[in-house]
Amino acid sequence: MEHQHHKLNLFDIRWMWSMFGTAIGAGILFLPIKAGTHGFWPVVVMAILSFPMTWLSHRALARFVNAIGNEDITHAATRLGRKAGFLITLMYVFALYPICLAYGVGITNTAESFFVHQLGLHYFEHNRFFLAEHLITGMIFVMIFNTTVVTRIANALVYPLALILLVFSLYLIPYWKTAMITEIPTFTGFFAALWFTLPVLVFSFNHSAIISTFAQAIEKRYGALKHFKTNQIVLLNTSLLLFFVMFFVFSCILCLEPSDFDKAREQNIPILSYFANTLGNPIIGYAGPLVAFLAITTSFFGHYYGAKEGLKGLVVQIFTKDKLNTKRHKQIDIWITLFLWISIIVVAYYNPSILGFIESLGGPALRHDHLYLTHCGDVSLALHERV
Fold first, then answer.
1. CATH homologous superfamily of 2-386
2. Which residues, 6 or more positions from 249, have their beta carbon under 8 angstroms from its beta carbon?
3. Closest CA to 116 of 303, 325, 366, 289
4. At a CB cut-off of 8 Å and minimum separation 6, what does 376 contact?
5. What is the DSSP secondary structure assignment for residue 40, as one 8-state letter?
6. CA 149/CA 154 separation, integer angstroms
């Protein structure tokens, strides 16, 4: 029986695609805009670096949770001490909450661009708040359901999304311009490109928001085999992500000029929406925004759940002595949901730069989280195995 569990099964595949869906969102849709500004070869190095960074950090985060037991990350973090636990929870929130805000802006801009450029409806240009409120309310309403329902919805969206992204990447091949490959950046420019693009790269592969739920599910199903199955599933998911994300990024950057990336950034829209507005292909014009909408939606589910979990952990740690036995958890859930709902709508209405969010807030926080939690995960596992 234990030998059968070593093999990949439907349960494992479902979780692999759920993590894939959490990662495929605004990150992959904005990474080409940031990476393309610096040329082809820095992106090649990024592709090489991204695999160990993504695999080891997310595996360590899962170990950090399931080495302690069947608890979410905010409870597991407190096992390292009250202050360290609070710091980890704060970093976790600071990494995920800005991403939720960025997704609110991204989905609003994607829908608005589609209405204006593809449907010729200019109503929402002057009624942005109405559009943002309805879109974000719809996404948060879905999150009211339990994690099983959300996982099934995300899975239903991920399969066609992955196929469409692959087809779109292949479709762009005839538009590739090989001149970019011959351009070699200076030594200083090369490493500057890596440093400034790293936050967006980390963001593009990040699916840490769903890792806590994933680790608990693995603990519940596999028990003593949890570390083996965690490594197996995360490794396969990382390989899948690397192929889809980097193939998509290379296809995008090889068929655009540097000025195109500046225009896309200025318009604050995903790369697919930019292609929809500029390629002149009616299929891409309608399919591009739809794919962007699905990608942001699937990723929003995981990040919203993680941000809410982290915020609740902070509130419980601050205001209650016994964080596991409070009678006010439902009230805390309601107030946190209202806070997230209102703040995401307000930020979406004001339309700040999405890449600015990633570069200044979410990306750097995720980068530090991954480095710190990789260490904590290995330490927690070592301590757990000694016991």
1. Amino acid/polyamine transporter I (1.20.1740.10)
2. 28, 31, 32, 35, 43, 47
3. 289
4. 60, 64, 80, 88
5. S
6. 9
**256-308: pLDDT as tens digits:** 887 888 888 888 888 888 888 888 788 888 888 888 888 888 778 777 887 88
Region for residue 281 given its phi and psi (left: phi exceeds 0; alpha: psi -120 to 50; beta: otherwise):
beta
Q: How far apart are CA 284 and CA 174, in angstroms?
A: 15
Q: Measuring CA to CA, which residue among 252, 202, 231 is closest to residue 51?
A: 202
Distance CA 189, CA 205 (A): 24
CA distance 367 to 365: 5
Domain ranges for the chain: 2-386
Average pLDDT over residues 44-63: 85
Place of tokens 């960025």: 102
**How far is C-alpha 350 from the chain's CA centre?**
22
Single-letter residue type at 94: F
Task: Give Cα separations from 63 to 189, 202, 385 (angstroms).
Answer: 37, 19, 12
